[in-house]
Sequence to fold (422 residues):
Amino acid sequence: MSQLLLGCIADDFTGGTDLANTLVRGGMRTLQVIGVPDGPVPDDIDAVVIALKSRTISPEAAVNDSLQALQWLRAAGSQQFFFKYCSTFDSTPLGNIGPVADALADALGASFAVACPAFPENKRTIFQGHLFVGDLLLSESGMRHHPLTPMTDANLVQVLQQQTPKPVGLVSHEVVNRGSEAISAAFRDLEAQGYRYAVVDALNDEHLYAIGQAVAGHSLVTGGSGVALGLPDNFRRLELLGDARNAAALPFVDGLGAVVSGSCSVATNGQVEHWRKKRPSFALDPILLANGRNQVREAIAWAQDLIHAGPVLIHASAEPDSVKQAQQKLGIEAAAQIVEAALSAVAVGLYHMGVRKLVVAGGETSGAVVKALGIKALRIGAMIDAGVPWTLALRDDPVALALKSGNFGSVDFFEKALANAP
Ligand code: ADP
Fold:
C-alpha cells in the first residue's frame, strides 16, 4: 500500500527541485519525477513532485498536463495536493496560475485554497497582498522586464483575479501575526462569503509555518516552496510521518566520479578554474565541434586513461569573450545546441565507463544530460550548497547526480560535491 502523503505539481523543473529540497529538509522522503510518470511510486516515499513545463505554454495545455499529473497523484493515494509556482508569481493575464488552480480545485472538489508565493529566505515577501522582491515591489523589480512573464502589477489579489472568474480575497499580516487559529478562522470567513482563493501575507518563516498549519485540512494548497515549510509537521501531528533525520539519506552508490560543465556563469567559471589548478580537465570548443572535429571521442578517450586515478572534469565553460566569439561564428542557438549535444554524449560515455557520481553544471546542460541518460525520476538527498542537493536517479543501475544551475555553489563546489557523494 502506498504511503504517499503529499502530491505536488510544479510548473517547471528547477521550481520542482526547490520544493523537493524544502520537503526533504522538513523530513519527507521525496521523489521528483520529470513529467507524468508511467510506473508506480516506490514504497518508501512520502512526497512526489511532478515537474511539468507548464509555466509559459497555453493555459489549455497547462490545465491538461496538470490534470493528468493530478490524476496520477490521486491514483497513487496522495492525501493532499500542492500546486507549485514561482515565488515571483510568474504568469500572464491569461494564466497559467489561475486556470490551473481552478482546474485542480474543481477536480478535487476543493471550495477554497490559499495562494502564497512568499519565500522570505529568498527575499520574496507579501504585505497587504503586495509581493516584494527585496525592498522593491514586484512591479519595480527586474521581473517587470521578463521576456515571457513580465510582472507589472505587485498586487497579487488583482493579478490572480485577472486569471480566474472565482473571487480572490486577502488574509493580511495582522491576522497572520496572530497565528494559525486566527488564519484558519479568516479562511472560514472568506469561504463563507464565497471566496475561492486567499492571497496570504507572509513576511517571515514563522508566518509560513503558521499558514502551513492552517492549511492542514485543505485538499489543495497553491504557492511557492516557502508555504510548504509547515506541511511536514501537519503529517507528523497525525503520526503519518516519522522524525526528520533520515529523509535525505540516499543508498550508497558504487562507481567513479566526474564533472560535466556547460555553464558559463561567473560562479561556474570560478569553480572550473579552481578545479583546473589541481585536477585534470578537458575543454570542448564549439567552433572545433562545428568544424567536424570529434572532440567527444577525444574527451572520452582522455577520460578513460585518467579516471581510475580520480575524478575528471570535461567542460565547455569559457570566459565571455570566447563564448561571444563562438556565438558570433555559429549563432547563439546553434552554439548552445552543439555544446549541449556534445556534453550529453560525453555524459553517456562517462556513464558507460562506470561513472555513477556525476556533477553537472548548468541548468540547460542538466536538462540535456538528464534526458540523454534516460532519467525519469530523482530521489532528493542532502544539500551540498544552498539550492543544490545530491539526487539519485532511479533506474536499474542507479546514478547519483548533482545538478547545479549556473550561479550556485561555492568556488570548491565540484570537489566538495564529489567528496560528499552518496
Ligand atoms: P547556466 O545555468 O549557467 O545558465 P546553462 O547550461 O543553463 O548554464 O546554459 C549555458 C548555455 O551556454 C548552454 O546552452 C550551453 O550549451 C552554452 N554554452 C556552453 N559553453 C559554451 C561556449 N563555450 N560557447 C557558446 N555557448 C556555450
Q: What stands out?
A: The chain has two domains: 6-237, 256-419.
